């Protein structure tokens, strides 16, 4: 068994799932922590979904020899619905990448007091370098970012465990709400559907059933571990649902010495997600345009730069609900296949 390649695939999995919302804690609060102790059960459900569906998706990729999410969706949804799914998924990938690019600029502006455009252009510059290197660049970025994510989330969780009411806050539950199950499934469904953009070509490149299955299991377990440790940290914050960047509030208030590591972690997660999305989009576009992947990446960055300058939230807010239903349907069909 090639454990090195399994971990590389797992880190690509994790690095593409995490992003601005994950790093800042906002997604974790909205999908899990606001439910109190039920959030732990929700994280377990999502984690098991990441393990099972991530592995199955990649095994299915090898079975049908899919080169991009286009071919996989053709197989899963069939010829009638697949075109609709592929269009909405492509728009979501471009839109989310544009929003994350804007988030990278905002991080420079709000946390480092530097120009937002400087942050955006540096991200594009480093992104083009990674794309120039190819798959090895994608692997390198995630092998660098994911360990920082794991270390940072565990350190913050360990630091939070020193608070006198740490256990009581973890046990807290306002009232029993079955919605936590739907929330957990929606979170896993959305991310598994989106991450196929990068996992499908990555799995085909590895082309080994045992390695891709192990990579899916390791990646899903890491996601569950990081979600759990982040949840333990976030529930220590009063009125956590009222903050746009709850993790930053915790770091500034309880662990200021972690601030620089936190900034590196947030930027790394944003960058790894941007690279993963563009890598997946590039493989999708390659089927119809015969040009070098670098120039495809350059074209995508050019489009997402302009998206990062406008309020794209209106379109995203309209697409998210539709894509949410598509994602849950994708999990159901993936389970059946």
TrEMBL record:
Keyword Membrane among UniProt keywords: yes
Top-level lineage group: Bacteria
InterPro entries reported for this sequence: YkvI-like
Record carries keyword Transmembrane helix: yes
Transmembrane segments: 35-54, 75-101, 113-131, 138-158, 178-199, 211-234, 254-282, 294-312, 318-336
Keywords: Membrane, Transmembrane, Transmembrane helix
PANTHER family: CONSERVED MEMBRANE PROTEIN, MEMBRANE PROTEIN
Name under which the protein is recorded: Uncharacterized protein
Taxonomic source organism: Fervidibacillus halotolerans
């Amino acid at each position: 068994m090639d454990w090195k390649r399994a971990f590389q695939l797992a880190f690509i999995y994790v690095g593409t799932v995490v992003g601005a919302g994950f790093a800042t804690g906002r997604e974790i609060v909205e999908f899990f922590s606001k439910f109190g102790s039920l959030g732990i059960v929700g994280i377990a459900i999502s984690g098991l979904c990441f393990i099972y569906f991530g592995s199955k998706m990649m095994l299915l990729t090898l079975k049908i020899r899919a080169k991009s999410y286009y071919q996989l969706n053709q197989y899963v949804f069939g010829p009638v619905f697949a075109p609709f799914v592929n269009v909405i998924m492509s728009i979501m990938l471009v839109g989310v990448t544009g929003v994350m690019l804007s988030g990278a600029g905002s991080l420079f502006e709000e946390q480092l007091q530097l120009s937002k455009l400087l942050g955006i252009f540096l991200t594009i510059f480093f992104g083009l370098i990674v794309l120039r290197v190819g798959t090895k660049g994608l692997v390198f970025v995630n092998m660098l970012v994911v360990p920082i994510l794991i270390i940072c989330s565990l350190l913050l969780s360990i630091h939070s465990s020193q608070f006198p009411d740490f256990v009581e806050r973890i046990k807290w539950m306002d009232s029993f709400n079955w919605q936590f199950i739907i929330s957990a499934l929606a979170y896993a469904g959305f991310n598994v559907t989106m991450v196929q953009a990068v996992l499908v070509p990555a799995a085909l490149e590895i082309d080994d059933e045992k390695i891709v299955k192990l990579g899916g299991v390791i990646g899903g377990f890491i996601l569950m571990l990081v979600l759990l440790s982040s949840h333990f940290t976030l529930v220590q914050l009063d009125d956590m649902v009222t903050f746009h960047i709850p993790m930053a509030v915790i770091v500034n208030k309880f662990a200021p010495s972690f601030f620089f590591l936190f900034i590196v972690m947030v930027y790394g997660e944003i960058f790894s997600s941007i690279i993963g999305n563009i890598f997946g989009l590039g493989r999708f576009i390659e089927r119809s345009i015969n040009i070098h992947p670098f120039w495809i990446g350059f074209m995508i960055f050019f489009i997402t730069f302009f998206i990062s300058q406008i309020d794209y939230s209106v379109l995203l807010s309209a697409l998210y609900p539709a894509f949410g239903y598509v994602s849950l349907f994708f999990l159901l069909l993936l389970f059946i296949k």
